[in-house]
Amino acid sequence: MAETAARIDLCSTDEVTSGNVRKVEAGGLTLAVYNVDGEYFVTDDLCTHGPGSLSDGYLDGHVIECDFHNGAFDIRTGEIVSPPCMVPLKTYKAVIEGGRVTIET
After folding, report:
1. Is residue 54 part of a domain?
2. Which pLDDT tens digit goes with each residue over 10-39?
3. What b-and-e string marks burial along 51-80, b requiring 16 or more CB atoms within 10 Å of the CB?
4. Does residue 2 lie in a domain region?
5. How many structural domains comprise the chain?
6. Could you tell me the pTM of the whole model?
7. Pairing of strands 94-97, 100-104
8. Has residue 94 been placed in a domain?
9. How many CB atoms lie within 10 A of CB 32?
């Protein structure tokens, strides 16, 4: 029998306005929730290069730039866009349900 994925409720869609990012701690995770023109994305909040919090970074389209060393990632895939980052960012599939942003684990 297949295991059922658990959902983690992160925040209301209203809490993340278009073009912005919000730090959320839920389910033992520290995440960044992004809104790009009404489409939501979720990644780990901690930059893979250093102590930077991506929710404090600069969102430009689908690219988040860490404000610590200016490394950047594609929030859709976690792929590195610019150095000094060398390790891709973990992403989560955002599920919108009843005006809430959730992820499945």
Report:
1. yes
2. 999 999 999 999 999 999 999 999 999 999
3. ebbbbebebeebbbbbebeebbbbbeebeb
4. no
5. 1
6. 0.93
7. antiparallel
8. yes
9. 25
